[in-house]
Input
Amino acid sequence: MTLALLHTSPVHVPVFEALRDADHPGLALRHLVHEDLLARARDAGPDAVRGDIEALLAEAVAEGATAVLCTCSTIGGVAESATQSLGVPVLRVDRPMAAAAVARDRVVVLAAIDDTLPPTLALLAEEAGDRCVDIRTVLVAGAWARFEAGDRDGYLELVAAAADRVTDADVIVLAQASMADAATRTATPIPVLSSPRLGLSAAAETAG
Output
């Protein structure tokens, strides 16, 4: 079994390799890194890259992928919608995290780019269903500029500081997979959820 992972940044590759080694030894991963997809989705909307995503995933399936995991929250919904046409499961990395988050009453979502918020909020609403959940968002000022500059520590510190400023919440959601390590830098007593480990576990089960 082979799990293809669609990334929009190369920083995700070692993260998911480490999680695979720790939690799912023996699972074959194939990494597809296409940074341009996020840039174009930010400029013209996620639907603008739908055709390219479907073509990339179809190629991965033709080469043996038994499931696909999209690690980018901005284009995750578009990727997920390709499941039927591809004939294999396509999962978005943040769905298991969203399901866990909306089991609580008050959710605060942290994001480094505003384009991530609409698809994340839509996913949370979908997972919440009829359940009434108070969801608030925080855009972490300056964080994405640090990420794009390659300042990973600075990026994570800004995200962690934003999490520590959150009050009146039952859970904090880190909307982007790249934020995951910020959870280990926080001092907040509020649970902080990130997507990589939960998403990979769900995808590994599906790929098998």
